[in-house]
Amino acid sequence: MEGHKNKRYQLGPKLPYTLTEAFKVNELAQAHKDRSKGATFWKEIEFKGLIPGRTGDSMRNFLKVSLKMGLLEYYREYVAKAKYSHQFNSMLKAKD
Q1: Which long-range contacts link 55-62 to residues 24+ away (Cβ below 8 Å)?
Q2: Domain boundaries along the sequence of the chain
């Protein structure tokens, strides 16, 4: 097929990173400061499956964009938007 290009298919809607994912990305970046700026490092993380469902490019971009001000600032923004779970439309209430 001439002119045929490979396409990347998105498996679902883009979901914001959870706090658990943010902590893990930050932990990996801090543990490997010398390599964490490179795409190769994040591709290795993707292939190891340390953060399931996230591509190496996505993790690297998240680190550069969302965590550039630090993990505490991301946490504040995250809590302010009440993104507690992607599985539920609203936050669940604990029973007494």
Answers
A1: 59/25, 62/17, 62/22, 62/25
A2: 19-80
